[in-house]
Every structure is written in C-alpha cells, then in structure tokens.
Amino acid sequence: MTDVKTTTEILQAEAPKEVVFIGSLIPKANGGESYRLEPEGEEKPGVWFEKRTEGGIDVRRICAPLRVSTVDYDVNGEGFGITAEFHNAVGNLKAVRIGLDELSTAAEKLRGLGLSIDEAPGARQSRVPDYLNAVFQNYKQQGIPLVRRVTRVGWLSDQFTAFAFPDGVMMAPGEDSKERYCMDLPEGAPSFEVKGTLQQWQESIGLTALKSDRLMLSLCVGFAAPMIQLLGLQNSPGVHFYGGSSIGKSTAARGTASIFGSRFGTWRLTDNFAELVASSHNSLPMVLDEISQADRKTMELLYMIANGRGKGRMTTKGGAKKVFTWALALVSTGEQTTDEAKREKTGKASAAGEEIRLINIPADVGAGNGILSQLAEGESAEAVVDAYTAAAQKYQGAAGRAFIKKLLEDVQVHGVESIRENFAGYAADFSAMASAGRVLDNQQQRVLRFFAAFAFAGELATNYGVLPWQERQAQAAALSCFAAWNSRAGSRRERIRDCLDALAFVDEEKAKRLYFKGGKLAEKSDAYSPQTKECSALVFAEKVRVLACYEPGKFREIINKMGAVAADVEAALMNVDALYFNDKSRREFRPRDENTKSLLPKSRYKAIFPQAVKNGAPLTDSQKQEILDLLKNA
Asked: What CA–CA distance (Å, rounded) separates 501 from 365?
C-alpha cells in the first residue's frame, strides 16, 4: 500500500534541509509566521515562507533569492525605503529601490524587472510585499545598514559640511566614504568619471593652461561651481567662448569638464533633458559645446539655466511634480555669440539678464595662435591644443575632489561667514583693479562680480595646492577676460546710443494734425490716402504726451543704418516707457478709435511715448545714458 502524504508533508520534504542554518530567521510580528532566505548556490535557493500550524510547519517558496541590502531615509529623516537585490532571468544582478509606500505593488514591479516569483501574476495577496516589510521591521537584527538617501549631487545642506559626488562618494571633513549614504539620482542622469591622479592632471592641464588666459579662466569657472552657493551668489553664472572654427573653444570647455569628470555635453538637448542635466550638475561645472546645435526651444532655456530652476509640471493624477533646481557654473562654446544664436533660432533677442549671466568672451586672444597667447620657441599651437584636449579626456575628477576636500576643511576651520567676508573684500579690490578709476554702470558691476568669483575660486585652488599656479595668476587671467568682454559690450552700447539720436526727432506742428482712422494715421487737414508714406515717421499729440509712430520697416531701417539690432533699441526704449506696445502679445501698438476709445484691430506701427522728450526736443546725453543703464539692468 502506498503512503499518502499531506500537502504540508510534501512541502516540508521539498524544502531545503539546511534552511534553518542559512542566514537568520526573519519573524513576523504576529508570531507563528516567518521568512527565510536561501541564497544562490544552495539546493533550493529562494525566499521561503514558514507557517507553524497544529499539524506542523507549512513551508513554501515565494520567489527567487531577494536580498535587502540597505534601508534608507531622506535628508529630512523621512521617506523610508529599501534597496532590494536579485539576479534576473538572464543572470544580471539588479538593485531596485522601493519606498515603503510602494510595497503594495512591489511584486509586479520586481516581476517586470525579471525576478522569478512563484505566485501567479495578479495574485490577490502576494507574499513578496509582506516579506520585504518583515525585513524592514527586523533590519537592525539582520545587520542591514541604515543609510541617508541623497537625491542630488553637491552640498547636502546650507551648512556646507558635506558634499555628494555623482558616483556616491560623500565628503565631509576628515572623511571620504560611502558607508552612511546612498545616491538616488533620477534615471538618465549623466555619469561622472575619475581617471588619473592629481599630479598627472596638474602637469598636463594645470601647467599648460598658463599659455592662455582663456584656458585659465575656464578652469577658474570650474572651481567656482561649488562656490556659487557658498559665496551667496544668487544665480548660476557662466562664460560662452565664441569665435571661428578650430581656434580652441572646445579645448577650453574640455579643460573645465576634466576638473570633476563632468559630462562633456552639447547644446543639442530637449528642455526636459536640459533640466535633468543641469540638476545633475548642481554645485559642479556644466559644459555645453557648440551652440549651433541648439534648436529653437533649447535657445529659450538660456535664462532658465542661469536662473537655476526648471519648469513646474503636473503629474498624471493632478499633483505637482518636483521641480528641478540647481546652482552651477556653465561653460559654453560656439562660433556665434549667444545673442546671435538666439536671434537666428528664435527671432528674439537675448534678455539682458541672460547676457549678464552667460558672459560672451572671444576665444581668439589675437596673438595669431587662436586661444593661445604664448608659446615656447618651436612649439606648435595645434600640437599644444591637441595634447591638452587628449589630457583632459585622460585625467578627470581628481582635481575637483582634492579641491572639495580642502574647501570642506576650510569651512570647518574658518566658517562660511568668514569665507564670504573674505570674498567681499576680494571682490572690492578686484573691482577697483578692473575699473581703473572709471565709473562702471550696473551691468558692468554685475558681470564684474562674477569675474571676481571666478578669480577668487582660482586663487583658492592655487592656495590649496590644486592648481599649479603662482599667487595672482588666476586674478590676472580673470581681469584680462573681463577687459575682453567689456570691450565688446562697450561698442554695442555706443551703437545703441547712435540709434537713440536718430530716433529722437519729432515734428510737433504736424503732430497736432494727426489722428488714427481705421487703424491708419491720417491728417485732419487732408483725406488719408493708403498710398501716403508720410506716416512712416510722424508724431501726434495725445493728451500731454508726444507719440511717434514708425512703420516697422522704417524703424528697422533707421536702426540698421546705425549698425545696431532693432531688439536692442526696443529694449532700451521700453525700459524707460519710451517704446510702448499696448498689445504686448503682438508686440505692436493698436490705436484707439477716436469716438469709442476701443482698441482698433490692426496697426502697422511701433509707437513711441518719449517721456524723456519734452516739446519735441532730442534726448540729452544724460537721458540717453538713463535709457542705456535701464537696458543693462533689465
């Protein structure tokens, strides 16, 4: 007679005999139920569920080996979760973070990633979430480490006592360890690399950069990135090296990227990915090469990158998604200036704030060797640039980590306020040297403060022994590059000044006879004829103001003759209420009907209310300067 075995006996027979000796028991709070993990390599690997009953122990496998490697929490001491590890169906090790608030759907999530689960798909009550919860409740007894989950790189708090690198390395004074932290960066975040030693970087990058103030500045900008928040700067500044092909623009950018092993990116990216890349470079330098690759939408991100905050978006359930934020230093390159590129792609001028925060600097220093200003006898500019580029790709990350380690020690010894006070004094001295006794306008002062930050960071890196330079060499390079920027910006301001002279003419007597009829200018003494061209540069009195109307073509014609850009002059006039659009969405003046006072539907005119002009008199020099200053501060 054949013995008939119960289901419990069969399951017990199939269970691994050594299961009680493999790992430790993971009991449940209600008693009588527990889990065991039989690791890979044993006779019956997997997670086993045990339930004590009156008839014995009911044992069954619920899934392949699934180990919890860490328990984590966020920077606020909340948001607990676990990291589960397993080998998927093709043998690859997977590590998946699961928040405790996501446990109910953990089984299907893990199944989709390749975990072999014995229960049928869609089972009403999966044991996998229960197992993971039991492990969490017993993590201390199991010896599972509790770690702090970091969701962004850079400074971990406004106390500036710890710094997170993208590969999970955390630095705090006297420590360089992964033990107490884990990184949880967004999917698709760019990776950073550490290759070579600090000495190799210094010999191949640091010393070679002394051949060009542009290369030196690009390194200073890289070291300034973790200083932006520390120094209390409000925006994410940067520089844009522009000029002809093959003069060394990308070489400078590669030098910047080599400091922390940053991603060497291009302007060819979507707005969503731009936000991801920027947030992944928080407190680090960000490099975007070749602005010609940007499309129309990307060019509109210039201000967003400088402003340090992404767009607000809604979730599918109607809630608000987390908004990406960052504080970084940007190095950009291209054959065009940022303003030229934006006009070409979008038809719009760069906002004044964009041009202040992303500073256009000619890459060619004018010495006949592109970006290089000095060469040793017999040296080839091409060979130097090629060697620098190759070294920047070969030696990465060591310089940045050495700088952060010293900076953390500096903060610990002297404090944040002391460093900020030192910077304030340094910036004042730097400004005095750059201005050479001249009075600087607001735009120049704002740009100068960013250059002071770049120089200050370069001098710190020199004092820390990271940059192999002499004292004040970083400062000299920053002063030289500021002069190059200021020379270009000054000539642009002069062209705008000439345009203001050309536009500030009025015929007050004729103005008194003009009015709008059917959206067109007409004189009270004559019937209006559509063929009449007088309206291209006429004015009329409206209440106590003088209104000058220009056909768009005539407006642009006057400005183009002066060698300026229409949008620059428009911005200058609008900032003092001298240029007026009562239909801002169309950027045009829509006159009111003389009887109904309602806005007429169309206008071919740009309307100027020159409040600075009285009785038709031309703008004085001081009034023109006022307009220029307001343009620069926009």
From this structure: 33
